[in-house]
Amino acid sequence: MRQVFLDTETTGLFAEQGDRVIEIGCVELVNRKLTGNKLHLYVNPERESHEEAFKVHGISNEFLRDKPKFAQVADEVLAFIQGAELIIHNAPFDIGFLNRELSLLAKPPLHTCVSGVIDTLLMAKEMFPGKRNSLDALCARLEVDNSGRQLHGALLDAELLAEVYINMTRGQDALLMESRSDASAQTAGSQVDFSSLTLQVLVANEQELQAHASVLAEIDKASGGKTVWTHAQSTV
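Predicted structure:
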């Protein structure tokens, strides 16, 4: 299974009010193993970031001015995530922004090119009800080193999320094996119709019959002639 951890940074909190994507980070996981395949892009949002957003990600308007616009990187992003299962922390936020960017280019929404979406924030709320479930909180709880996260960064956050997700689902393989064992037990306990089967009968040859008789004779001798089969033969 191919999965992609995705994170974005934006000019603000509200895509529907004109805020735009400024950074995209993606990390690939195949069959629960990180491949090292990554995508990291900065994007010129064609507008300035809100002051509060800048305090979160630290990406200045000056830094973004010479970066490509989303229209120039959209196909690269879609190609990277094509057919994958997306894993995102607070998925509605990132998907909302990316779908808004795609709609401005008259491109279809994300769900048309990916196999599904997992929201790790929802997972965390189910696993740790009543606790803080931000990415930083999960890193601390699951012993993932996030000491390099002074500010939010799309690629760094995607990498941290990959480690968090792997730790959160560490027992998944065992649960899958248990589920398969349960299914096997149910199958073993169910009735099977053998009437349509032709069973091969293997008949012992003369040498095998003699060897068998020799073993029985030795057992009978050791028991002092008290074996069950000897008494059964004598009463026939």
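Summary: The mean pLDDT is 86.
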